[in-house]
Amino acid sequence: MHLQIKQAKIGYNKPLISNADTGLDLGEVCLLIGNNGVGKTTLIKSILRQVPLLKGNIFINHKNIKEFSAKEIAEQVAVVFSNSVVSQNYTVEDLISLGKYIYYPFYFELKKEDRDEVAHIIEALDLVQYKNTPLKNLSDGNLQKTFIGRAITQNAPIIILDEPTTHLDEKNKIIILKTLRSLAKEYRKIILFSSHDWRLAKEFADKIWYVKEENLYAGMVEDILLQHEELTRATLFEINPDYIPPHIIAPEVYKEMLFSLLQKNFRKDLSYLTFEWNDKQWTLSGLGNIYQCESFEEIIILLKTIH
């Protein structure tokens, strides 16, 4: 394995993650998930040697990170944090080009092949029209894509991204995730990215690292999803603890939308109800009569009227 975590205890004064023992090979995409505050960012900073381990070791290409200099870490790991800061007067091309300067003194001119690579990445990320735009004039989404472009130009074997899709719309989210997966497969990179959306794993990730209750559960996407029921329910985070869902018979996307709708609007046990999606309408049973609704709005009106 190119990146290995061995019996690591990760945290500050007290551990956030205990006995983490896992690793990733070149060519793999891994999604790091878990609730806020469980230690996802601290784990990333531990790999970067910004936060010392409380116990255990981390190895990159069989070398302990404790033996790496700051420059060697930068050559091995490119990182994009969700709160990255850089001069707002830089242009998109300036920032993406910065990834190359870990190999040269800053006053050097980039070689032609470096400039060509930067131009290729700008095109791949759909940023050509913003090439000369100052960062201060970019949308949050395009700014995030530009930071990711800088990480790609660094040409490190490991790319780590902390919540890289937070500010992106669906189109740009897909562009980023497809680009990252292509990098992993075609150029043998390890891509580790954190997100609150576990559903991204099913389309774009090979492995999951799931942080829960001081444990790091790691493995193939499908194995980890099936081992943790909360990851296959309609929502990862229980917004309404008093809500008990009804029985829902529907395609997954409709099931998820109805689940979300009901838990936002009702603080009660709805387990005696059955909703079935069929022929472009919902059939509701369990109230003594059979009701049919053609929209989610009708469902809410009906339930609030009956109750």
Automatic annotation (TrEMBL):
Domain ABC transporter: 1-238
Molecular function GO labels: ATP binding
Gene3D superfamilies, A to Z: P-loop containing nucleotide triphosphate hydrolases (3.40.50.300)
Keywords: ATP-binding, Nucleotide-binding, Transport
Keyword Nucleotide-binding belongs to the record: yes
Family per similarity comment: Belongs to the ABC transporter superfamily.
UniProt protein name: ABC transporter ATP-binding protein
Organism: Chryseobacterium salviniae
